[in-house]
Amino acid sequence: SQVTTQCMSVLSKSEDRIIKLINTQTAAICNLDSQSVAYSPSDSRLVQLFTIPEGKEKKQYMRVMDTVNHLELLSIELTGQSKHGIIYGLGAAPFGCLSFSHGEGHVMYCAEKKIKSSGYFDVDLDWDNEEKIVESNVGEKFALTESWGENNFDVKNPVLCMVDISTGQVTVVDGLPSGVSPSYAAWTPDDKGFVFFGLEDKPFRLGKAGGTNRYGKLYYYDLKSAESIVIGDTAAYEQPTFTPDGKILVFRRRAADEPHNATVELC
């Protein structure tokens, strides 16, 4: 049988406008719903996140390439692991994140939390087991969950996740504050944790894409203890980033009770 293929290439453009070919792959032709790409700190590795529609469902794949030796380090279907829901692409700012750890052994991304819910007439319900009935969230299957709106209609209950490049194992981060949506997540220079701006879900989720005055707190998450520590009091934060030497955390901050497009402070 004959298979139609497509060729996909990743290019880089330098400051002097020289375009270089990073890698090229040939695969069976498919319709990509979206694609996100990110480089490692040394630019020696590249991660690609593909979203491919399949009927009413969407399947998402991650591919990690060694751009120096032109080797494929990882190629997995993330959907099949059933650890979380849909992964947000880089277009779902400020929630979407796709970034290598500084050691370049892990990739962090943000996805929808997988919440089990059942209808009253689902055949697999065990009504004699009270504990399982509580865990199945009976009656919540078709409940309306508020989203963050403004180009983020798929973002309702975001969670941060990590992939081990050597094994392909996905880990969903535990211990994030309840009622908080993580955004602008960034690795710490020692890879022992990450910082993020935790947006408050209550009293309601207002659109964030066009609003810089949404309130929350700045957090540091420690991977070893699985604890979230508040490092910035209630305000509106954006783009927490570490300086190249890894000694200083820089971010934009403003009061959360002021109008849109107010002046921000560089901290």
UniProtKB/TrEMBL annotation:
Pfam families: APEH_N. InterPro entries: 6-blade_b-propeller_TolB-like (IPR011042), AARE_N (IPR045550). It comes from the Eukaryota. Keywords: Hydrolase. Gene3D superfamilies: TolB, C-terminal domain. Residues 36-252 form the Acylamino-acid-releasing enzyme N-terminal domain. GO terms for molecular function: serine-type endopeptidase activity. The keyword DNA damage does not apply. Belongs to the peptidase S9C family. This is Acylamino-acid-releasing enzyme N-terminal domain-containing protein. It comes from Pristionchus entomophagus.
